[in-house]
Amino acid sequence: MTIPPLSPADTTLTTQLRAQLPQAAFRADPAPYNREPRGVWKGHAELVLAPGSTTEVATILAAANAARVPVIPYGGGTSLCGGQIMPDGPTPLVLTLERMNRIRSIDTVGNVATVEAGVVIEDLQNAALDADRLFPLSFGAQGSARVGGVLGTNAGGANVLRYGNARELCLGVEAVLADGRVMNTLTGLRKDNTGYDLRNLMIGSEGTLGVITAATFKLFPRPRSRSVALMVTGSPAQALDLLALARGHAGDGISAFELISGVGLDFLAETMPDTRRLFDPAPDWMVLVDLGLFSDAETVMETIFAEGFEAGLVSDGLISQNEAQAVDFWRLREAIPEANRLVGSISSHDISVPIRALPAFIDEGRAQIAALGPYRLNCFGHLGDGNLHYNVFPPKGHDRADYAGQKLRIMKVIHDLVVAYGGSISAEHGIGRLKAPDLARYGDPVKLEMMRGIKALFDPNGILNPGAVLT
Amino acid sequence: MTIPPLSPADTTLTTQLRAQLPQAAFRADPAPYNREPRGVWKGHAELVLAPGSTTEVATILAAANAARVPVIPYGGGTSLCGGQIMPDGPTPLVLTLERMNRIRSIDTVGNVATVEAGVVIEDLQNAALDADRLFPLSFGAQGSARVGGVLGTNAGGANVLRYGNARELCLGVEAVLADGRVMNTLTGLRKDNTGYDLRNLMIGSEGTLGVITAATFKLFPRPRSRSVALMVTGSPAQALDLLALARGHAGDGISAFELISGVGLDFLAETMPDTRRLFDPAPDWMVLVDLGLFSDAETVMETIFAEGFEAGLVSDGLISQNEAQAVDFWRLREAIPEANRLVGSISSHDISVPIRALPAFIDEGRAQIAALGPYRLNCFGHLGDGNLHYNVFPPKGHDRADYAGQKLRIMKVIHDLVVAYGGSISAEHGIGRLKAPDLARYGDPVKLEMMRGIKALFDPNGILNPGAVLT
């Protein structure tokens, strides 16, 4: 795609917008919006706008489009793929939805939440809980991530196995197009077959086709009984057999089925030595199983454990006896990304492969990485979805900086392997800027052509998040 | 949208395709492809092609596109909205996928089925069952409807409440674009965030953006215990209260929650007098509840019934004691559309409204129809999704033909009311040709503009199913 030339967000635009928007829409300090969690990219935006309404978003986009100024739609700033930072080119305008953070309604008859794009995910979870409902989207950054970003990237997390990703939870969106037109498909209907699915075109487009300003989400009944267990298993293949066994007893009542590697447990011991060791020595592999049922979950979990043990799939384990223990087990799982950060990866990958192929992929990946050098590999995550976080670290005692030059080579080996297995180079984190070249390399060429056509149709001046998704 | 002038499927095109395709790809008799179930539209196609592979589909589309000949993608021919018939304009080519009816694989580890577009839905259900899995899409026409048509219209049915519609069940598609290019997004991955969601753009586009040739679908564990009940309830509002009560005991284990009206039962007695009357006199309202659980479903159903009775929501009922009774209760529900056909509706509507608003909508709709004349109204269906089949019939002893002139007026009253309630004029049947004018009238204008742009991008010559969806 040829992006037409863009102009910087200059004083002319600022002056124009000062006349059109209230003072509250202007953020004083651009610095926080020019940083991202991994410190890979640095932004250079000066003008950060925080509109208070859809109309104000439309005003901003119409002005930016007329002036051909790049716009970076901004949610919670938690992207690990650089979707929120434009590191070069004409100075962009950052459009943060943080002031549009109203939960408009929680409908407990229809089980629908209507929210503005700036609502923080954890706030929505809590509002649902207060109404005795479940909003199941759940992941590490949920305390910062906002609805708009989560829909923009089609975020996943631990409960996708049961409830689906952000896309599957969303019933409708309101979005402002590049030229300021407002597209309203903010229905809370469970069934609506009126025309092309432009809601799902907006979802996952990472702010390159429009800016989502509001959304409706499905809510669910809260399971009445919960049981969480950690089970030591011999291999990823055994873990998959255990998942099949668990499904036979709990069906779609399995809320999460997470793989934890011994390397991850080593990293925990290395970086957070005060963490209690639940198994000693640390097993090579274990799984976290989370059941949420309307019958007695603990009984079902005990059956799964006993049958898994008998079948030789489980050698040791712990079943939560109360909610505090359940939270404890999850804390262990959730501490692993933090331990990863403290160790410092050379290259991190958010990949998926067909579930059946996971064990072979893990074996072959380990061999290929070993052939590259004495790296440490922590591969863990959402086994039930075929989605692994597959991160490569320097040998113990070394620093990631010593291996920075190897990053692209490692990434290519892993992504080549993922594609050879029929997998995806971005399972739940999006493309952002990090993976835009790989999408161009590995993507279906006809799909890419049509994506470029759609981009040109929705954003002819190319002002929306330039450089993200499409290179 | 200005559709460029189209040409008829003439002997030049036929001669060209005879040289490119095997004899088996040519259907001898076009007559079955020019009829549709309600007899509203009549087609005039002469050339009916049944390709045996994606490559052959591509050959046909490339030729038709070059010759600017309209193409009607054809599934099972069961559309009630005329999506499968082009009644006027240049003679179209019918492209039936019926020979591409292979189930390529049933993966019981990943729980994914990979199928060609011509697979009949019931065949896929049975193949899943043989592998001890569930393919949950289920509706009256499942014995004829094919995968391509079901995805083209985003079909729904009775189990959407629990498992979602065709869109939510589909993981990936392969599609041939108007000019013969093949777009391959046929992944069976549970998580894949690589670029814009063109799969969902194809799904629900009713063959106007491309021809789906293959798809991957989610499969589910089969619930181990099932219980079906009919419960007599006082009103739609009470039925919703009962649904909430049932959710508290069975959560997302409720596979279906269907509303049945006394008028539907009267129609059954009138047209199929041999049908056993389960309740006498016929109640004004009842619901069919289908539980599929991994604990004992019958016990849970009894609890729901007992608490519903105690709360005054249920006055009478029957709980299935075995699978044969469960099938029997469903047969009653499924006989109602057949009874409707025998009585003969003046106008039928497939609508949805926000679930919370259903009781008020039903009351107001009844009053508005009564104001139009002494019509009989049978309103029934997927209460848990807010989706009603809302059909208007002549007074007893009269024929629909006497009221044919009232059809558009009735439809307008109902659709106006649906839109006033924030509902949808097409919940699960699609737009086809029947509702294309209403989509243009009621749809979000910005969405419609973008739809026209997408149509022009994917099908610049306008050959794909002209007149469907977009007028």
TrEMBL record, chains A, B:
Its EC number is 1.-.-.-. It comes from the Bacteria. The keyword Flavoprotein applies. Signal peptide: none annotated. One of its GO terms (biological process) is respiratory electron transport chain. Gene3D superfamilies: 3.30.465.10, 3.30.70.2190, 3.30.70.2740, Uridine Diphospho-n-acetylenolpyruvylglucosamine Reductase, domain 2, Vanillyl-alcohol Oxidase, Chain A, domain 4. SUPFAM superfamilies: FAD-binding/transporter-associated domain-like, FAD-linked oxidases, C-terminal domain. This is Putative FAD-linked oxidoreductase. It comes from Pseudooceanicola algae.
